[in-house]
Amino acid sequence: MKKEWLKPLKMTNFSIIGGRVIDPASNLDTITDIHIAEGKILAIGKSPENFSPEQQIEAQNQIVCPGFIDLGVRLREPGAEHKATILSETKAAAAGGITTVCCPPDTNPIIDTPAVVELLKQRSEANGMAKILPIGALTQGLTGEYLAEMGTLKAAGCIGVSNISSVTNTQILRHAFEYAANFSLTVFIHPMDTWLSQKAYVHEGEISTRMGLMGIPEQAETIEVARNLLLIEMTGVKAHFARLSTVRAVQMIQEARNKGLSVSCDVSIHQLFLTDKALKQCDSQYHVMPPFRSQKDKEGLRTGLSEGHIQAICSDHQPHETDAKLQPFAIAAAGISGLDTLLPLSLKLAEEMQIDLSQIIANLTIKPAQILQIESGSLSIGKVADICIFDPNKQWTLTPETMQSSGHNSPFLGWKFKGKVSHTIINGKIIQ
To answer: Could you give the residue numbers annotated as active site?
Structure first.
């Protein structure tokens, strides 16, 4: 059953009592209390003198951590409200402990003017759920032909710029990087060579060959990574590589970081669990882009995360209506509705890999905040109170009925999980 949602309450003074507080930003991991006043964290530990909380949240046997920051969330509004809306998906985000989401520029209309940025901001503020950080278009209309007005997009509130698909003209890409660097804007790169991925939708390998399917070789990702890294070195722009799927790409980016380039990367949580072997079922729920890769890549991505070469985990949330997935694999819409499973899959990953819980929470909080260069992702005194409280042992099963997102497209339907959010606090307001 979906939760009955509270309207965002007025800002109150309250305390969170007896939870295991994990804040990777300050290396804090202890059972203690947190006190919130006027939307900000007033104190951790002993209640300050003269502080009178209007209510208490009992958090015994639960984890209290910064709210999660998701670097890749399609809200489908504006332009595809039949799939989802800002209200439905920011509610779903908050239900999953996600307090901030980054919205890519491929809305309709595209985020290449301040008017679209303002629309997203207004609807986000009106809903009072998860905060939206728009990513502006690198080129006008995302066509790769003319540079977008990046200065005005930044002034309107864009956190960075992206073209989503590859800019095939390298000269234009160079000028785009130079322009972004002038405005100190981070470029978000989705590395996929246009020609090597044309008319293909699965990983090129043994499985695609057996099934007679056109495949996308790993070089479609690594060639684009190499081209972009050389231009990043040339222009000095700060860049983030989004949704990596190959271990070689992770290695290349780490080598660039070792050389001093200002680059970072993330991985979708589903890429850390599934491989191209799932294609044997020919189920369109496994149709994602970039495609699920080999077992070697999955293991390499996990290693890259544990060793710190991958900085962030995201949901790569792409909700679809039912009909969009009720198509043959090749023409079904690509993408997974991932907000509901970001936390439980991350906890499952930590358990399987025996990774410290604080490290996984860092990949969902302070590290994405550092990529975005925002004052979030920590529980420091004086910071805005964006907080997630979850029961790490609460067991549940993912079904269409338990999903909060409007999109029920997920290959994880039927999976049994541990870890459920009990409270989400955004800007010092108790959302649920």
So the answer is: 316
